[in-house]
Structure formats: structure tokens, C-alpha cells
Amino acid sequence: MASLTLPPAPPNPRQDAIDLHKAFKVVIKEASGFQGFGCDSTAVINILTHRDTVQRGLIQQEYRAMYHEELSNRISSELSGNHKAWKKAMLLWILDPAGRDATVLREALSGETMDLRAATEIICSRTPSQLQIMKQTYFARFGTYLEHDIGHHTSGDHQKLLLAYVGIPRYEGPEVDPTIVTHDAKDLYKAGEKRLGTDEKTFIRVFTERSWAHVASVASAYHHMYDRKLEKVIKSETSGNFEYALLTILRCAENPAKYFAKVLRKSMKGLGTDDKTLIRVVVTRTEIDMQYIKAEYYKKYKKQLAEAINSETSGNYRTFLLSLVGHGYALTTGHDIPLIRPLTQQ
């Protein structure tokens, strides 16, 4: 369930484009008497964080037609200087979901700052249909196949799993075959705990060829049959990025909202904030399941996600993120999540 709030009446994308252009050219008068052009950040945030992906696409079309400039380029120039995190978040937000995933993946798989964990998260937390559209977008945007970049920048069993995961079409429905579930659970036991060493091929086969519903059922069956959680088996039998990929698939199969709540918690825990991860999760999940993520976050950490973001960020960056996730309430999934007052901005 999305956390995005939209106007009661469908907004006019042409008027939004006009209003954005005005916001970029607002006259700012300083105390010294100097006047100059600046950016009405509040107006930009109020417009773009309350439009869905289709509406944002239409706004960009209108802006391009009227002002002969890409909205993304204008945002990039307006939010330079001390607005690095906010600019990154906004530029990702205005993309369509497939374009956003493709952009994050390209950045994670290239350059001097490769982030294989981010690439693994994007790939292993997406449905087969999402992956197919994203692969097409990746090629259209960057002129190379995603499989080529995966092959060039990853290795070993991690590489084999990712290539299989983006290449094999999987069933997305809720139905499972109990007989095959039991068979897969036995195969994983034989490939891991029952033998000396690990048969990684079996783990790759089960985790890349089966649906999320099937993988979740296999985990349940494994626990019932061998009195051991499959997650612990993965941790003891595998390591590194291969382990991370398997755990991502398993956790998303069982409860994606819980998985992303944990990722968000880790991004804001301890000294400093991992803005890259915080931005990635917020902008990619706002229109999918952010309400459920908020509920899982509160359930596990006894703190509202918005409250955590409020304390870890500041300025327009904070306002932008809070506009996406919502300023206060977590969705009630049970009687254990109390209703609390909305946050007061600092």
C-alpha cells in the first residue's frame, strides 16, 4: 500500500509545469537588500511529492514542450551546492519505476564507487515482470545489456545467481505445489546441512526458478521438517554477496515490508546516516508498500519511521522524504500498533 498522498482532483500537468518554472525563478530578497533569482523549494516539493508516476511523467512532457528544457536538468542545476542528498532523491523520484531501478543499478555496477549490495537488493527484491521492464529500460537508457554489466562486475556464485534471477521467468501467483515444496526442502537439506561443504548449484536453482510464494513455503517446510530456519542455514552455508542475495530473496518472499524496514533501520542506525540507502528505499517503495513498511518498522523498533527520518535529516531533504512517507501515522496491521500524533517539524 502506497504512502503517497494525491490531490482530491486530478491536477493539470501543464499548470504544474508552469508553477514549477515559476518556482525556479522566484525573486529572493536578502537582508542586505540584494535581490536575485532563487528556488522556491517548498513549491517544488509540494508539487512533485504529491503526484504519481504517470502525473510526474506528464509534467516532464509539458515542461519540455513549453520551456525546451528537461525538468531533470533544471532540477539538477537548481539544487546544486549544499543540496546533494535532496537533489539525488528528487532526480530519482521524478523517474518512472523501471527507469529509477535501471539508474540505481547502472550507478551500482559502474564507476569507482560500485555498490554490489545495492545492485543485489534491486534485482533480488523485484518481481519477474518488474525485472523484464527494467532490463528493457536499462538497455534503452545505457546502450548495454544488464546481463553484460552483471557479468563484468560480479563473480562466482553471486554472479550465477543474479544472472539466473534476471533471466528466468518465474510464476508470480500465490499457488504452490506441496509436493514440489517438500522436494525442494529436501534438496536444500542435502545440498547444505547434510553434507560436508555446500552444493551452491541447488541453492541457486531453487531460489531463482521458484516463485516467492514457493520459496516462502519451502522455508516453512524446511523449518517443520528439520527444526531449523532456512535463513540460519543460508548464513552458515554461504557467505559474502552470494549469502546476501539468497537472504534478500528469502526475506522478500516471506515479508518484503519487513525486509525494507530492516534496511531503513540499518541506514539510520549509529553515527551518521547512509543517505544513499535511505533515498533508494524511500523513493522506490513509496508507491508500492511504504504503508506496510511503516507498520513493520514500528512493530519491530517501537518508533515511527517518520520520526526516525525526522531526527536523521534536515532542511528540504527532510521535508521531501517526510512528504513521501507521511509525517506521522503507521498503517495499523493489528491492535499492537497505537495511533500517535503527527510529528512536529523541528
TrEMBL record:
Belongs to the annexin family. GO terms for molecular function: calcium ion binding; calcium-dependent phospholipid binding; phosphatidylserine binding. PROSITE patterns: ANNEXIN_1, ANNEXIN_2. It holds the Pfam family Annexin. This is Annexin. SUPFAM superfamilies: Annexin (SSF47874). It comes from the Eukaryota. Gene3D superfamilies: Annexin (1.10.220.10). GO terms for biological process: response to cold; response to heat; response to salt stress; response to water deprivation. One of its GO terms (cellular component) is cytoplasm. The keyword Calcium applies. PANTHER family: ANNEXIN, ANNEXIN B11. A pair of annexin repeats may form one binding site for calcium and phospholipid. Keywords: Annexin, Calcium, Calcium/phospholipid-binding, Repeat.
